[in-house]
Amino acid sequence: MLIFALSFLLGDILLQLQSSYPVTFVIYLTAAVGTVCFCFAGNKVYLALTGLLLGFAWTAYCALSDEEWNLNREWEGKPVLVTGFVRSLPIINTFGASFDFEVEKLKVNEITLNKSARIRLSWQDGNRIKVGDEYQFHARLKRIHGLRNPGGFDYEAYANMNHIRASGSVIAKMPVKYLGHDFLYMPVNQIRQVLQTRILEHLPTSDTSPWLLALMIGERSLAPQSHWQILRATGTNHLMAIAGLHIGLISGFIHLMVNFLWRKSVRLTGIYPAQLAAASAAISAAWLYSGIAGFSIPTERACLMVTFIIAALLMKRKLPSWHAWGSALIVVIIINPLSVLSESFWLSFGTIALIIFGMCGRLSPGGLWWKWGRVQWVIGFGLIPLSLFFFQQASMVSVAANSIAIPWLGFTILPFCLLADVFLLISPDIAILFLWIADKSLAALWIMLSWFAHIDFAVYSQSIPNLWLLMSTIFGCVILLLPSGAPGKSIGLIWLLPLMLYQHPVPYKNDYWLTILDVGQGLAVVVQTQHHTLLFDAGPKLGSFDAGESVVIPYLNYQGIKSLDMMVISHGDNDHIGGAEYVQRNMKVKSILTSAVEKFSRHSAMHCAFGTKWEWDGVTFQILYPFTGMIQIGNDSSCVLRIDNGRHRILLTGDIEKFAENQLLQNRNISLNANIIAAPHHGSKTSSQKKFLAAVRPNAVIFATGYKNRYHFPHPTVIQHYSEIGSVSYNTMETGALTFKLEKSKSIVFPKMYRYEYLHYWHDVVS
After folding, report:
1. How is the chain split into domains, by residue range?
2. Other CB atoms within 10 Å distance of the CB of residue 260
3. How many Å is the maximal CA-CA distance in the chain?
4. How many whole angstroms separate alpha carbon 622 and alpha carbon 261?
5. Which residues contact residue 746 at a Cβ distance below 8 angstroms, ignoring those fewer than 6 apart?
6. Residue 272, φ and ψ in degrees, nearest 5
């Protein structure tokens, strides 16, 4: 079973590594060969080959089935008439509601699509929608197109895993038709929404109360971002959502309670054995609680393993732990083979694999350490490779924090959350008491977690940028977790040496690297020299999206950059300054230059002014603009930075427009000539005059724009201006993050385009 499960998983992974969908013939041929190999499955080699081929074929079939519904590019941004059902719990915020919508029919002009598909919508007036409501309304849709940056979140993979085929918004000024409510559509989510509504009505008012919603129905949208930092620093983020641990605790609690009470009744024990009744109740509780959580991957895994193990006990059969793990793995992949794109898949199955490997089949001396502390040590140490690979950091206090937090949660918080769930449907007055007790206990736990999170060594930051380094680190950790006295155990340290000795590449002296990050409609540029790093602008902050948190800091961590020597914020518009606050909070910034000093502490920021000049590692940096008296004039106050290593010149222009361009042209002390220019104001028609471009004469221009942005940047006339002077145009919307490695010894520069360099079949390519 284990061999088949691992090979089935490997076949799934093999498909995820492809840059395009396999043709249908290949899928059917693979499935046929796998079926033939199954006839010889008594041989382990054929068994492994069967799993590999069938895993690949099944995953490819499911992925290709989703691809059958695609939004035509010609329909993007146009009003379309959609009819269907509200599928997910709506997330209510200041902008309205966002939710998943199951489209049954889509109509554009005279064209109608009747094939169902899942899309994600936002609706300003959707505060009262319910799961199961059927609507017909007009919407503007876009294909799924996320930001693509090294170290950043891959939204397109997330959407692919959740079968979301498009996103958009309901057009407020057009008629909306309510078609009724189907109580049989997504009944679990309907129950979850009823619970959510009642919980919010009776939830205590406190900083930690949003986490009660997470523990009761798995909904974490109300949790503040600052709390996530504490959870990540302490390695306890798995505690604040219904996951395998919670399923195990609840099913164990129910088993003990039912077993105890059942044995007290002679009549009940005569009808049905207490052990069987308790086991049945435990399985039922596990699946019920998993349903309340929305059947997330960790809860599915936990429920399946609990079911397999208890079923084996009831049938008086011995089921090895690895077989239960492998069986759950296969079922989860069959249900949704694209779940391997989720970090939670790897962390969930990885945690249980570590527990089985580190605890089973060994001598178990008594004492609290072996029974409890060793489990936390095995998990905390064993998950370091995956934590560094996915999040570029690992908690050094997770063992201590989890050793306290898990029993605290299991005995003083979770039972009261479960009781509150039950009594909210029976007697809300009693539920309020349970919510109050759970909240007070959680607040006390939070004080402890906050203390752990602020210890100086709480977090170890290190990125694992490639699979070879990941595999070496995993192999080293596995060897070190072998039983005491195992021969060759010390060799594990050798396998960890690549991680310990790994040095992120940096430019040579006189060279520099320029990376224009993909932050949507905004700008964020990282400039690296041999020993220094500069950040020019920090992208936008819009609602729950903060470019500093989602793009800039993950990229800097991925590159192994521990501090910024300088941050230049061109001006005060949100799409340039929005992420700066998060960057300042989470990374040491030695100095700040900006034209919007009033938006920073006066002790930490200075005006960027014409003539400011410095040199790092043979590379010259110079502020060309604004001139004296041109600070408070909006876009035309933007800092303009020129970077020069004697051969390659870069011009970063912020949002300057024609006025600032003319000012620069009139100053004869300034040489504007540059190889590469970041297009002024993202390519707005109010900038990039022909005479300005004639002075710059760039070989390449970079437009930093968002996909289908509402400003329609870059403007066609501006693109034409650059084309007329022979400039090659790049747009981060199309290329993802762009990296230019500007070496003084080379005259020709070709950028690395992240979207194309790391292309997978689910990524949207704009031609």
Report:
1. 2-67, 73-185, 190-344+400-460, 467-501, 512-757
2. 11
3. 101
4. 78
5. none
6. -150, 135
Question: What's 74's DSSP letter?
Answer: G
**Length of the chain, in residues:** 767
Please give the average per-residue pLDDT across 404-409, as a whole number: 89
Q: Give the pLDDT mean for 602-607.
A: 80
Task: Give me the CATH topology for the region 73-185.
Answer: OB fold (Dihydrolipoamide Acetyltransferase, E2P) (2.40.50)
Distances in Å between the alpha carbon of 63 and those of 103, 146, 300, 306?
A: 19, 18, 21, 29
pLDDT at 12 over 90: yes
Average pLDDT in the 483-492 region?
81
Rounded CA separation 106/79 (Å) = 11
In order, the DSSP letters of 486-510 are -TTTTHHHHHHHHHHH-----PPTT
Q: Do 202 and 428 touch, CB atoms closer than 8 A?
A: yes
pTM above 0.85, yes or no: yes
First and final C-alpha spacing in the chain: 45
Q: What residues contact 496, with CB distance under 8 A and at least 6 apart?
A: 472, 473, 476, 477, 480
pLDDT band per the 50, 70, 90 thresholds, residue 544: confident
363 pLDDT above the threshold of 60: no
Among residues 193, 191, 289, 189, the alpha carbon closest in space to that of 246 is found at 289
- Contact between 624 and 643 under an 8 Å Cβ cutoff? The reply is no
Distance, in Å, from the CA atom of 763 to the CA atom of 259, rounded to the nearest integer, reads 51
CATH class of 512-757: alpha beta
Query: How open is the CA angle 490-493-497, to the nearest 5 degrees?
Result: 155
The single-letter DSSP state of residue 746 is: -
Question: Does the pLDDT value for residue 522 go beyond 90?
Answer: yes
The number of angstroms, rounded, from the C-alpha of 160 to the middle of its chain's C-alpha atoms is 13
Q: Quick one: which H or E segment has residue 735? A: helix 732-735
In the DSSP assignment, the letter for residue 324 is H
CB within 8 A of 421, min separation 6: which ones?
195, 216, 217, 292
Distance CA(522)–CA(686), nearest Å, equals: 17
- Residue 760's pLDDT is what? 95
Question: Strand 79-86 relative to strand 133-143: parallel, antiparallel, unpaired?
Answer: antiparallel
Copy the structure tokens of residue 555.
């990229």
**pLDDT of the residue at 378:** 86
The answer to whether 300 and 309 have CB atoms below 8 angstroms apart is: no
Q: Is 427 helix (H, G, I), strand (E, B) or coil?
A: coil
- Banded pLDDT at 702 (limits 50, 70, 90): very high
Contacts 24+ apart (CB under 8 A), 252-259: 252/282, 253/415, 254/278, 254/281, 254/282, 254/285, 255/279, 255/281, 255/282, 258/282
**Angle (CA) 669 670 675, round 5°:** 150
**Mean pLDDT to the nearest integer, 377-405:** 89
* Percent above pLDDT 90 for the chain: 57
The Cα 87–Cα 78 span in angstroms is: 23
Percent of the chain as helix, strand, coil, to the nearest 5: 50, 20, 35
Instruction: State the Cα–Cα distance between residues 385 and 481, nearest whole angstrom.
Output: 13
Radius of gyration of the chain (CA): 29
* Pairwise CA distance, residues 326 & 332, whole Å: 10
The partner residues of 84 in beta bridges, in order of sequence, read: 103, 135
Phi–psi pair at 99, nearest 5 degrees? -165, 160
DSSP 699-733: SEEEE---TT-TT-PSPHHHHHHHHHTTPEEEEHH
Give the Cα separation of 489 and 475 in Å (integer).
Answer: 11
- How many angstroms separate the CA atoms of 128 and 373, rounded? 47
Q: For residue 665, give Cα distances in angstroms to 364, 478, 638, 669.
A: 79, 63, 16, 10
